[in-house]
Each structure stands twice: as C-alpha cells, then as structure tokens.
Amino acid sequence: xxxxxxxxxxxxxxxxxxxxxxxxxxxxxxxxxFLRTAPANAPEPTRAPGIYPFQCDVxxxxxxxxxxxxxxxxxxxxxLLVNNAGIAPRERRDVLEAxxxxxxxxxxxxxxxxxxxxxxxxxxxRAQDSTAGVRARIVFxxxxxxxxxxxxxxxxCISKAGLSMSAALYAxxxxxxxxxxxxxxxxxxxxxxxxxxxxxxxxxxxxxxxPQRRIGQPAxxxxxxxxxxxxxxxxxxxxxxxx
Length: 243
Known about the structure:
Helix content: 25-40%
Number of helices: 6
Strand order of the largest sheet: 3-2-1-4-5-6-7
Order of helices and strands: EHEEHEHEHEHHE
Structural class: alpha/beta
Distance between the termini: 32 Å
C-alpha cells in the first residue's frame, strides 16, 4: 500500500458516489462508505479492486470518529476526501407543511455530518507530509439546489446551500496550508434519487430544459473529481464546478 494515494468517498454504494469510487480506484486506495439501514432494500456496498467498504452514517459523530480512526490507523494519511453522501426527504412536502423531523434529518446528514467529517480529516491532512507541495485535497458534492428553490423539498435545498458555504469556509481556511477545496454542483443526474421523476426530466430535457438535451450521468461527475484528484486544478481552490 506504500506510495498509493488514499481517498475517502462517502455514500459510495450507488449513484454518483459509486461512480466516483470506481473512477478513483484506478489510482487510489478508496475507502467507500455505505449506510445499512434497511437490509431488505439497501444497496450493497461497492466492491471492486482498490475499494474498501466501510459502514458509516455520516450524521453520527461516533461513526465519523470510527471512520477517521480507521483511516489513520490503517493508512496513516488521507490524500482526497469526497463528501458525497446525502439524502432526499422521505416525503416531498410543501414548505408550508414540512415538519421538523425531516428538516433535522437532512441537516444532520447533508450538512452537519460532512462539515464535521471535513474538520476531522482536515486536521489529519494538516499534520501529514505534503506531496509536491500539496498535503491533500477536499471535494464537496452539493447540488444545483444550492440556488434553485424547490418548494416541495425545502429542507434539501437549505442543507445543500449550507454545505456550499461549508466548502467556501474550508477553502478559505486551508488555502494557505496547501489543501485545495472544491465544490461540485451536479445538475440533473441519472441516479436513484432522480429515478422517480427521470422520465419527466428526460422529456423536458429533450424539449430544451437543458442545453445539451439530456440529463447527466454519474460518470460525468466522477470525471470532474478525477481532474481534482490529479492536481489539475490546485491553483483554483474554492471554485465551484457545475456538472
């Protein structure tokens, strides 16, 4: 394992996270987290050469500490953190009716979890030796919901908007320490999360909703992460990449 860069990808069992983990596994040892909450229908953890599945609920402080401790003990360093794990509301409800339980769940998973996971891993990165002047890199996967108001899933929009600010804060704080931080905002991507409305989006995209007349694929987000992982954008810390 010596000399192989190490990456952590949260929410790596499906969709965008799975595509990112599989792309990075070509060059990195990838710790891919998965959440096992409903064994009957939960996706299996991504298993492929170079990917090490790790059960972790990012909303749990105990789980986050376990993840950081395992990476520190097994690898001794982290070269790339990809904060990808996120959830949609269990039920889409108008902002005038949505309850606090859903709000708390999404804030805990989509915002609080990655914010404090980044804090813990950033301190590990600061302490480790640099490679070619760069200690490590951090990616936040947010959403076009950062700026697009969807009134039937307001808690999701708020959580992603907050995560965008988290990315900006870490980018500003870590820039002088040569730890570049980036935000990737996927648009309409073909995943489990968009599956219930995929047909509608595809029809509307073909009619001109999207300039390229199609919805995106997870691999296209993964390629943006690849550019960051390869150090091609290191002097652009703090930038937002729309996919």
